[in-house]
Amino acid sequence: MSMLTPPGMGGKYRITGDTYPRMRRPRRRSKLVLATVASVAALGVAGWGTLQLIDVFTGGDKTASAADRKADCPSAEPSAHAVALPKPAKIKVNVYNATPRGGLAKSAADELKKRGFAIGKVGNATAAYDKKVAGTGILLGAPTAVNGTFPVLGTQLPGATTKTDARKTADVDLIIGTKFKAFSTPRAASTALTALLEPSPAPSSC
């Protein structure tokens, strides 16, 4: 027995001078690696299964779903069936004065002519309206003028009321009321007219 061998230890623990006993801990690293790999694999399988379920419940065709959404989404462009509004040059306006102020019909007609409207009859209002229009004015015309001529002419006189009669012609009457002071400024009227004739597409909500 070597002098380096502790008392009571012999056999395989005997130190002979050229070898030494090696005390190793149990190898747990391989088990840890295997556990990690197994966990990653399990998560991968779970994620794949989730994607499969999503495909099942959503139809599984992203291209078709996008096409369906586009088909269901209303177009941002103005409808082709929208009423085409006439330009001022195509609107014939008869101007009538229902106020006590003299010469108002002629001055109003001259201003509308400068702004591109066609002028018809000019004079005092009939007894049915003379001194009976409390507001700024009345736009009077056929039922077809409601969605065509009235909006265009109304850009010049905001606040004017509209009324229809049984006429068959396309001309309209502008009956000036007692609260009338002036038309909209040319700039404001032009801006409103441009927005009316060339509306911007509404933003898509899809």
Description of the molecule:
The chain is of the alpha/beta class and 206 residues long. The protein has five helices and five strands, in the order ααβαββαββα. A five-stranded mixed sheet has the order 2-1-5-3-4. Strand 3, helix 4 and strand 4 (161-164) form a beta-alpha-beta unit. The protein is elongated.
Summarize the structure.
Helices cover 34% and strands 13% of the residues. Strands 2-1-5-3-4 form a 5-stranded mixed beta sheet. The radius of gyration is 45 Å and the shape is elongated.
- The number of helical segments is 5
> Whole-number radius of gyration?
45 Å
Q: Describe the global form.
A: elongated
Unreliable segments (pLDDT under 50, ≥5 consecutive)? none
Looking across the biggest beta sheet, what order are the strands in? 2-1-5-3-4
How much helicity do the residues have?
25-40%
Main β-sheet description? 5 strands, mixed
Secondary-structure element pattern, one letter each: HHEHEEHEEH
| Mean pLDDT over all positions | 77
* Assembly of the depicted chains: single chain
Q: What amount of the residues lies in strands? A: 5-15%
Per DSSP E runs of 2 or more residues, the count of β-strands stands at 5
Distance between the termini: 91 Å
Helix/sheet category: alpha/beta
